[in-house]
Amino acid sequence: MSAEEAVDAATVPPGVAPLYREIAREEWARLAAGMAQPLTETEVVQLRGLGDRLDLAEVRDVYLPLSRLLSLYATATKRLGADTAGFLNEPDTTTPFVVGVAGSVAVGKSTIARLLRELMSRWADTPRVELVTTDGFLYPNAELERRGLMERKGFPESYDRRALVDFLVEIKSGADEVRAPYYSHMRYDIVPDAHVTVRRPDVVIVEGLNVLQPPPSPNDVAVSELFDFSIYVDADASHIERWYVDRFLALRHAAFSNPNSFFKVFADLSDEESVTRALGYWNDINLPNLEENVLPTRHRATLVLRKGPDHAVERVLLRKL
After folding, report:
1. CB 3.0 to 4.6 Å from 247: which of 30, 33, 51, 254, for a disulfide?
2. How far, in Å, CA of 1 to CA of 159, rounded?
């Protein structure tokens, strides 16, 4: 089997498949019956990323039921925490429900994370939802250059994994306030002295490429061990490649055109030059990272969203309890 065929194989390995319920889109969409659509078309447009075709129908059919399921899980987890505290004759110290969102570059996971933050906050049980991306835990560019890792930005070794684990440990320990570093996509670097502050919300969504990876050694804590629920956004590599190239082309007229952008050198490329450059980045960096590090973690997710060529979710796999 070629590398491309391996990436495009079954959604989960055959030995793991029995652990999941496989739900067709039509069946999943029926779960939204009776649920009010909480978002307007304008809000959906503001939430979707470049190249993503998210619309009201996709929100209603796929993400509204998913947000309700997550809210139910969060409520049940909070209730279990309170019951456990009562059993132990201790005060209830239930901590935020943490959701991990993983998947390839350009697969749409950032849009999904933003959308779930908005939808979950509309449910009465989970009104306070925060979103943190693992970009903030990348090493600063100066440190990446010192380590010879600038060409492997996004690979597991380019992240300060210990800092991310410590951040999540504080969240799950019930700290009143926890800070995460802030990453600027315009500057393509960590912004010194800037932070994202999380103050005991009901739910924390953590989005990133490698959040489902196992620990580097048996004595380490995996980031995913600190999740209460995890989502993997899945699609054929050939589709993701096309979405990546399309996004690169769109960025020439958006972020790349900003004179303060790290990527301003790409703004004047022709279409042909842009496609060549994007395919180079995809084949040399993003596809190897997908094959070696991201895709092998797919079966660790609680739920897998399988997308078709138009970014629409075609089926959902939910791990059995």
Report:
1. 51
2. 31
pTM of the model: 0.93
Distance, first Cα to last Cα, the chain: 33
Residue-wise pLDDT tens digits, 22-56: 999 999 999 999 999 899 999 999 998 767 889 99
Structure-token match 């652990």, residue found: 19
Q: What is the 3-state secondary structure (H, E, C) of the chain?
A: CCHHHHHCCCCCCCCCHHHEEEEEHHHHHHHHCCCCCCCCHHHHHHHCCCCCCCCHHHHHHHHHHHHHHHHHHHHHHHHHHHHHHHHCCCCCCCCCEEEEEEECCCCCHHHHHHHHHHHHCCCCCCCCEEEEEHHHHECCHHHHHHHCCHHHECEHHHECHHHHHHHHHHHHCCCCCEEEEEEECCCCEEEEEEEEEECCCCEEEEECCCCCCCCCCCCCCCHHHHCCEEEEEECCHHHHHHHHHHHHHHHCCCHHHCCCCCCHHHCCCCHHHHHHHHHHHHHHHHHHHHHHHHHHHHHHCCEEEEECCCCCEEEEEEECC
Per-residue confidence (pLDDT) for residue 7, from 0 to 100: 39
Judged by average pLDDT, the poorest of 30-39, 159-168, 233-242, 250-259 is 250-259
Six-digit token string for 181: 């570093």
* Domain 3-319 falls under CATH 3.40.30.10: no
Q: Which residue has the tokens 């139910």?
A: 72
d(CA 246, CA 279) in angstroms, rounded, equals 10
Alpha carbon distance 265, 8 (integer Å) = 33
- Structural tokens at position 84: 């456990």
Q: Which of these, 198, 182, 171, lies nearest to 133 by C-alpha position? A: 182
User: What was the pLDDT predicted at 2?
Assistant: 42
